[in-house]
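Q: My collaborator sent me two sequences in one message, no labels, and asked for predicted structures for both. Can we handle them in order? The first one she listed is below.
A: Yes, handling them in the order given. First sequence, followed by its structure tokens:
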Amino acid sequence: MPSDLNLGTALKQDSEATAFPERIAWLVFCLTCVQLAFLHPYVVLIPGERANVFSGVLCALSGVLAWLLIKKSSRFLKSPELFISLALLILVALSGIFSLTPWSSSLRGFVVLASGLGGFWCARILLDSEARQVLFAWLGLGMLAVIIVLSIIGYVVSGRIEYFLDVNPHPLADRMMLLSFAPLTFIFWRKGPVAVAAVIMLLLSYFVFYLSDLRSAMLIPLVLGVLAVLFGALRLRYFAAVLVPLVVILACFFYKLPVAKIGPEYEPAYYRAENYPFSLHIAAKHPFLGIGLRAPREQFLEDYQIKYPYVTKEKFTESVQQVVTSENIFLTFMSELGFPLAILYAGCVLILFVRLVRVVRTGQQTTFLPALAILLPVTAALLHFQVLDGLLHPQISWFFHILLGMIPSRTGNVK
């Protein structure tokens, strides 16, 4: 257990150990986290483009300042992670240049790179001390608490949890899953009243998921509960006691869903199922650099045969025109950025994930954040990415890659 989880103590320790330039980098990082948590302020830098360039600029600025203002960043100059980052940058840039929509796809690529690489390297460089990780956990706890309150108020006002926070409930739910690392941290450290408040916060998060009508958001926590039991963080008898009311809640949830949302002809169901073969069809025609992020896909339907039995080609074509992406981030990367990038990125995530599982199993804690408090949100996000192009949203990609950057290295991250 860390020596002290007190917010005031962490602020004092960090202030005493941090030079002024590093404080600037840390402040910009925290402000970027707040902007991405709430998407406020939201500034349209390029009218007519859907890419959230403003948030991308903040992410890029945070990453650049971390590299330039913190002397300890020099230890990563020969890191394999840096060379992989450069390879990903080059592949995304080339994909944008040679895409079907060079300008729009390049902007999308910038946002994806800025939020992903910016979050990862800020975690590696900035969150390398126990005091900073304590501060980040408190920041995450505060942001999640405000998100829960705004989600419930938004539902009361408009019937939509995302009313104040996003344009779609999926990115909001994913953000909440990722920020759950904070309450999980205080729960696993069993820190008195804060742990009790953290449990209440997780229960309220699940209540927000219930209001959202998102099936994935309701089912993923059940999978995480099973993982917590397998890794010994949750005793089986406690899980069994929770399981009964959880089953009742899930039954009520699916009962209140409209019938149209449950059948195989529901658009998200047929679109996501059909995109497995359709994305592969696109990728086979543009295997190296893809067609570009959010590039039009209709032309690839001309010689394509529908595989899913519950949708016609005409109906699927309408969905392709509206949705554009695969609604599965790995399929999207494969078809829109090419096989090399998709394989490289998926391989890196797999290596980090396996490393994290190994740390959880061995119990060799090398960071303030309990490894399981990182594993559960990362697992939740990866599961959610099967029905969501999560990494195209900077507000998701930023926090996801911060958690990836928090995965302990072989020598440990905390100094």
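Q: And the one she listed second?
A: Here it is, processed independently of the first:
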Amino acid sequence: MKNNTTAQKLKNWLVSQQHIFLDNDGFLFDNTEKMNDAAIFTLRHVFDVEVSEVKKIDVLYNLENFYSQNSSVFQRVPFVASESLKILRQGVYDIGDVAHISEKDIFRMSSRAYGGAFLPFSPIDLPQAYERFEKLVQEYTPHKSNTNMKKIEELIHILQQNVQEYALNGRTGDISPISGERYVKNGITSRFVFEAYLAIYLLIFEPQVQELVGARELVGALNKFCKKQNKGFGLISNRSQDSLIPLLSRHDFIGETMLSADSIFPADPVLGGKPRLHQFRAAIPAGETILYFGDLPTDVAAIKALNEMDGPNTAKVIVIPSKFEFYLDQQGSGEHNFSPEEQNYTMCIAYPTISEVIAGL
């Protein structure tokens, strides 16, 4: 174990906090990168946009314009929306107007805003986009048995409603009667892009999702530890229930020795998810303490908000190293990822160290 100070700190947090909850995407599964791949694939093959050729400054302008015209989309995920705009501005500042979009830019962007960001570069109209989407569904469906077809069919139905409305009435106003969003270009809304992306992710990319190496053992060890210490144990995710439960079930993460079905809290269909606190409030009584395991800045922001609301030391968070966000230095320390204030309640620790500490409790 490279960093004994980090290990001891983790041990203290595991012992002291009353509840231990886990994130799903990116913490238990490798699906955050596959979601990024699905977004790039959808924009390329359905909307004819090669995102790597698009400049940051143009996407920044598009996003600012989109959020100003669709404030409800911004308010659903204000932290994610604000952070994505900040990252784009910083990229333009650092590199200049010639800077192109990176994978991290897409990773940090709200999926509901992909259309707002990239549709202005698309030559495709709504019927053409759906025709391209339909061909992909026909191509991949016969080969996929391990998919959430119920959700995919629901998304296809919504997309078809958009096409039918367009065929009957054309674009008769600025706002789609189906989604309530303003059209971005050629009769297409950002919501349409999101629903096409989600269907393609579920059909093509989610069947490739694998649990992270050691995730199953870690969940089992935490389950055992929490029962022994009489601690609450569960999962809080920004994924919707109709997507979250099938994924966990397919990988056998729900059960007596893993995660209890009644301790799994997906995103609220109206309010959304982290860093807002309604999921934590549903899972944990106000004032009780929590140690949360995640992988993103949204997880850190949620824990910060809990501490601001209920008092210091109410909440702690462990984030694991990831491709786009946090990393360990050569000494195995993750302190450089966080401000001095954040270090009071945040650590970056790799799976092997987490598992080793739990094994020693």
